Amino acid sequence: LVFVFLCCSCIVLRNVAEALISKGLATVLRHRQDDEERSAAFDELLTAENRAKKNLKGVHQKKEGTPMRISDLSSDSTKAKQFLSSLQRQGRMAGIVEFVASGSRLRIYLPKDTSIITLLLAGVSCPRAQSQRGGQVQEGEPFGDEALAFTRDLCLQREITFQIDNVDRAGNFIGWAFCDERNISLELVSRSLAKVHFSADRSAFASQLYAAEDAGKRGRDKIWLNYEPPAELPTEEAAAQDEKDRKVNYQKVVVSHAESSTSFWVQKVESGPQLEGLMEQLNTELNTNPPTTGAYSPKRNDKCAARYADGQWYRVQVEKITSKEQIEVLYIDYGNRETQAVTTLCSLPAGCSSLPAQATLYSLACARGPPDEDWQDDSLHAFQAAVQDKELNMNVEYRVQGAAYVSLQDPTAEVKDICKGLIQAGLLIVDKRRDRRLEKLVADYVAAEQKARTDRAAMWVHGDVTADDANEFGYRK
Fold first, then answer.
1. Number of neighbours of residue 360 by Cβ within 10 angstroms
2. In sequence order, what are the beta bridge partners of 115?
3. Within 13 Å and on the Cβ side, how many CA atoms surround 124?
């Protein structure tokens, strides 16, 4: 076995076995003197081995080498979430595709971090390929095997670059992968081997993906073989149908805490009396029978009681133990977080843990905050002023990976839709979703944003703040 190295016009031949032995990565197989099966280069191999022994290379080292430990960051969801922010901050990373499980699922080895992750390709939904589970063959979906074969041929055992967007409940990372600067998600859609997932709407590749998908639909290719375009309705009828398709089920809520101008915690008004009764019971019990200081030893995810700055006791969940004296807690009935001394916590009295957490995290639908940090605080303060001490109507518009996105209505305000009011004030940007059910809602928001741009309101005072036009000049915020 020989390697051939090309250098300009010179060809260099080298025995691979000799090269491995000289680095201490293999040893010579011993033969008798009259054994005709031994290598023709047996003497050279012995010389290389003696040289490796003398220089203590590889297996000839006197001390045992440190084994390489590869960490699987996708082994469980908790571990994956811990590494999510650091992987996101790294942006584009390089890795080697170790295994392709389906057209959109890769196992990637990260040499720099000696770790391995499972990556789900963002923005696409791939048909399932045939697989074996428990010794039984699981039939795949049409063109699932073709999608698997394409991705495998494209990138298996090759170096790719990728960037992480999110992580799912199972600990799989979700992101974009590029092989030879080709977006693998886009390549799958272009070959009609995958459909565009609605999560692609918020990405920089949305227009390319939808254009590729439309081309596949027109060509009736592969997964679009039996595709039939929806019948077009007259304008008025279509508008009525859109409004009908959008499900409206308002719930009366109050916003208990805002993390940003688009992410907030709410309490349902109908549960108010139950929460008041719980708070009265909790404080009566702990004020009548004060807990012994330091008797409680908190553990992560424990639900317990903590005394707030107002002197009242509240239910909390331990999120992180930062030291022996300090822990980070979430007030599960209100949504705010803070760092507490361990000595200020105690076990919940009997009967105070049966009521579910009364605060739930939601996000505004079809909107995102200002890209400029200078306007983010103004946006948050405006949102807090719009919702503070008010009973609002909330409707869940859609969900993404379990997270609910909602609209908020203030019946007493001039502009009843709070999100629309903030967009019109130049303090939020429209997140345009390609969802027919939301067309009218998005159109209203786009009109409000256009008015804010025309009026040079808030973040638009100096013109367009988005980065779309800057990319062509090689600049990105």
1. 16
2. 71, 110
3. 32
SS3 string, 272-332, reads: HHHHHHHHHHHHHHHHHCCCCCCCCCCCCCCEEEEECCCCCEEEEEEEEECCCCEEEEEEC
- 262: which residues sit within 8 A by CB, 6+ positions away? 363, 364, 367, 368, 369, 383, 428
**Token pair of 351 as six digits:** 């009967």
**pLDDT tier, 77 (very low <50, low <70, confident <90, very high otherwise):** confident
Look at strands 10-15 and 2-7 and give their pairing.
antiparallel
> Which pLDDT score, from 0 to 100, does residue 467 have?
52
Structure tokens at 278: 């719980």
Count Cα neighbours of 430 within 13 Å in the Cβ-side half-sphere: 22
Q: Residue 175 in contact with residue 164, Cβ under 8 Å?
A: yes
* CA–CA separation, 330 and 476 (whole Å): 35
- The position carrying tokens 């200081």 is 293
pLDDT tens profile 274-303: 999 999 999 999 999 999 888 888 888 899
Residue with tokens 């008004």: 269
Q: What one-character-per-residue DSSP string does 415-475 give?
A: S-BHHHHHHHTTS-EE-----GGGHHHHHHHHHHHHHHHHTT-GGGTTS---SGGGGGGT-
d(CA 408, CA 11): 72
DSSP-assigned letters across all residues of 233-244: PPHHHHHHHHHH
Q: Are strands 345-346 and 303-307 parallel, antiparallel or unpaired?
A: antiparallel
222-259 pLDDT, tens per residue?
898 888 776 554 544 444 444 556 788 999 999 999 99
Contact 250, 348 (CB under 8 A): no
Contact indicator for 215, 355 with CB cutoff of 8 Å: no
pLDDT band at 469 (very low <50, low <70, confident <90, very high): very low
User: Would you say the C-alpha torsion 149, 151, 152, 153 has a positive or negative sign?
Assistant: positive
Which amino acid, one-letter code, is at 294?
G
Tokens read off for 158? 């090759």
pLDDT of amino acid 117 = 94
269: nearest Cα among 361, 414, 389: 389
**Contact indicator for 315, 348 with CB cutoff of 8 Å:** yes
